[in-house]
Design brief:
This protein is mainly α. It has a domain at 61-151. The protein is built from seven helices and no strands. The protein has helices spanning 33-59, 61-70, 76-88, 93-97, 101-111, 118-126, 135-151. Helix 2 (61-70) runs antiparallel to helix 7. The longest helix is centred in the N-terminal third of the chain and has 27 residues, at 33-59. It is rod-shaped and about 130 Å long.
């Protein structure tokens, strides 16, 4: 006895189809060993960059302090004193202490990439002997002093830099 064939018995019948079975999802953790190596390298690099930034920040603390103090100064003599104290922060005392007058001004100019105008040279050399003028007279000196403090290079022809 044979059974009559129906559409369900045929191999191509849509009733016999199954859903596609997908494989299980791949977890993102734990990662491959190469990622651990990359993580170690990136952490070491970040630590190195952070330590260098902190060293640079500490090294330039004298500049930030001098620039803050410069804002409140309105006298050529006190600005010249501030420039000398700033130079003493990074250069040996004997090399800076022996400089005065034109030698001091020439040394200041040699340490900064900005050229010092003649009027500022006169203010630094003769500022203590002049009457204090208005704040507009002092403005160019303060601007140059701020540039010198921010841009001077901590090397010296007079005996090396202190670090």
């Amino acid at each position: 006895m044979t059974r009559p064939t129906t559409t369900q018995d045929q191999a191509t019948s849509l009733d016999r189809l199954h859903d596609i079975l997908l494989p299980a999802e791949v977890n993102w953790w734990p990662v491959a060993p190469g990622w651990y190596g990359l993580l170690v390298i990136l952490t070491a690099f970040g630590l190195l960059v952070g330590l260098r930034y902190m060293a640079s920040y500490r090294k330039n603390a004298y500049r930030r302090g001098a620039l803050r103090e410069l804002q409140s100064l309105n006298d050529p003599t006190t600005i010249a004193e501030l420039l000398r104290r700033t130079a003493l922060a990074i250069h040996p005392r004997p090399a800076i202490a022996k400089l005065s007058g034109q030698d001091w001004v020439d040394w200041l100019e040699s340490q900064c990439p900005e050229k010092m105008p003649d009027s500022i040279k006169g203010d630094l050399i003769n500022g203590a002997y002049r009457n204090t003028g208005t704040s507009s007279d002092i403005k160019p000196l303060k601007l140059y002093a701020a540039q010198w403090i921010a841009q001077h290079q901590p090397t010296s022809k007079l005996g090396g830099a202190r670090t």
